[in-house]
Amino acid sequence: MNPLNPFQIALVESSFRKIHRHADEAAALFFTRLFEFDPVLRRTADGDMQQQKRFFVKLLGTVVHRLECFDLVRDYIREIATTHPHLSLRDEHHHTVGAAFFWMLEEILGAEFTPETYGAWMAIFRALSIETKQAVGDLESSTALAC
């Protein structure tokens, strides 16, 4: 089931176009704020920060472009969580990532970051957090069974 209705999908797609136009700035704002909130998370940024920033924007774009069929989003997020375990966050980090992400949205979108737009992005963030946690849990369970 899709956590977003068609109006919310349209809001996310529209706001993402602006984020994409300012991709470098958006990624820089996100990571700067994230590491200010929790410097420990800097360790998850493996290697080249420019590459991490590109990956962040690509991840967002892939999610946004698949919103019409949320099963595709779910599969993509589960794939990322299992193939890039260093990106999988502990529960306490989801709040920090969310705070940095929504701050970035507000900075980039300005007046276009309406309560409706916030609600649409929050619906995605919550759903993705759940999927990531489940994927990591499934991976940990299968690893424990293999030992």
Structural description of this entry:
This protein is mainly alpha-helical. The protein contains six helices and no strands. The longest helix has 32 residues, at 115-146. It starts with 5 loop residues before the first helix and ends with a helix. The mean pLDDT is 86. Helix 1 (6-21) packs antiparallel against helix 3 (49-65).
Features:
6 helices; single chain; mainly alpha; 147 residues
- C-alpha Rg, in Å? 15 Å
What's the total count of β strands? 0
Question: What ranges have pLDDT less than 50 throughout 5 or more consecutive residues?
Answer: none
Overall outline: globular
- Count of runs of 4 or more consecutive helical residues: 6
- Please give the oligomerization state of what you see: single chain
Q: Give a short account of the largest sheet.
A: none
Structural class: mainly alpha
How big a fraction of the residues is strand?
under 5%
Helix and strand run: HHHHHH
**Please, what is the average pLDDT?**
86
* Fraction in helix: over 70%
